[in-house]
Amino acid sequence: xxxxxxxxxxxxxxxxxxxxxxxxxxxxxxxxxxxxxxxxxxxxxxxxxxxxxxxxxxxxxxxxxxxxxxxxxxxxxxxxxxxxxxxxxxxxxxxxxxxxxxxxxxxxxxxxxxxxxxxxxxxxxxxxxxxxxxxxxxxxxxxxx
Length: 145
Known about the structure:
Blueprint: H1 7-30, H2 34-62, H3 73-103, H4 107-138
Helix pairs in contact: 1-2, 1-4, 3-4
């Protein structure tokens, strides 16, 4: 059974779940519920890790998937894609550092990092869903000849 065709929608779902968990975690910590915040953040980390594994497996199997949109949508799509890719690389060590500060109970440093980590991680999660919608629904890949 070839699972590669199921991976793009799974990746979009995982990105959506990650974004929801990040927003929920932010809401919980704003209300002082550290336990719920921690549960949401650990869950977001696990979901994002599953996404990364699925993403790497998919692109290892399929390779590059050309974007089929034409006209004005191309520069819009590629602007979103390039910012997404760049920030996805940047956010990874930021997430690790933010988690390390939390685990070591360096709360002031953790809070300083989250001012950047939260919006960037959220951006990467949301744009991941947009890239999926653009590349697989609005402008689906051409069937192989």
